[in-house]
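Changelog note: in this version the structure field was regenerated for every chain. One regenerated record is shown below for reference.
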Amino acid sequence: MISVQAVSKTYGRFGPRVQALDGVALEVARGETLGLIGPNGAGKTTLLSCLLGFLRPDRGTITVDGRAPDDLAVRARTGYLPERLGFDRELPGRAFLAFHWRLAGGARDRTKSEVEAAAERVGLEREALSRPLRGYSRGMLQRIGLAQALLGDPAILFLDEPASGTDPRGVSIVRERILEAKSRGATIVLNSHQLAEVEKVCDRVVFLESGRVAKTETLRGESPTRRRGLLRVPAVRLAEAAAALSGEAFTPRTQPDGSMKFVVGSDEDMARAIRSVALAGVPIYEARISAELEELFSPPVAQ
C-alpha cells in the first residue's frame, strides 16, 4: 500500500543544514499497522509529512497505492491526526466535525448523525459539541482530532502521537479506535512514544535514529522477530527457576526482584517455559509476553 524508496530530506537551505531523513526505505502492506518509534529528532514526523505529501523529499520516491501521496484520490481515502493540533479554535466542536464530514464527501443529510456518532466513539460528551474549541482541554482536543481523522472510515490512517495529553481512559479509547480500524482492513501508520500502546496495536515497528531506519521488528504474524517472555518468581527461588528455563534451552536474563526475561518464538514456547518452572515447584507470580520495545532505545552492550 505504501512504498518509500531511498527518501532523504534536509532542512536549512540558507543556514545550518539538518539531515532529517537519510535514505529511508520501507514498505507498508495493505491492512498493516506500522509503528514509527525512535528518539526525539529521529525524523518520524518529517517522514509522516512526506507520506502525507505535505513535504517533498529531496531525493527518493514515495507512493501510496501506486500514486503520489498528494494525489486527490489518495487524500480522499486518508485520515490524519497531527501532533500539533492547529484547529480553528473559534469553531464549535459540532461545526468543526460537520466541516470535516462534508470535506470527506459525506452526505449533507447525514451530517448531524455522523457528527454525534463520531463524538460518541471518542468519548466526547454531546454538550461539548456546542462549545468553541478554544474552551477544550488538551485531552478533549485530542479526542475531537481523532474523531475527525476517523470520519468516513478512511482506508489509510496517519496518526501522529494520537494519545498525547489524554488521560488513561483517553489512551484506551485511542487504542480501541485503532483496533477497530484494523479490523475493517485500514492501513495505519502510527508515530508514538507510548511504546506499550504501540506494542498492543502494531503489526510491525520501524525504529528510526538520526534520520535512518536503524531496525525493523515484526510483532505479529507467522514469524515475529521481537517477542520476550517474562516470568516473575520469588527472589529466593530465582536460581531454581532460571535453571529450569535453561534446561528447556531458554537463556533467561535475571533481575534481583525475581524477574526473568527470555526470547520466545511462539505462545507454545511461553507455555513450555511456564510448565518447566511450575514442574520445578517454583511459584509464578507473573507471566506475560512482551515485545520489550524499550530495548531498542538502549545502546548495545560492549562484548
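Spot check on this record: The mean pLDDT is 92. DSSP finds nine helices and 13 strands in the chain.
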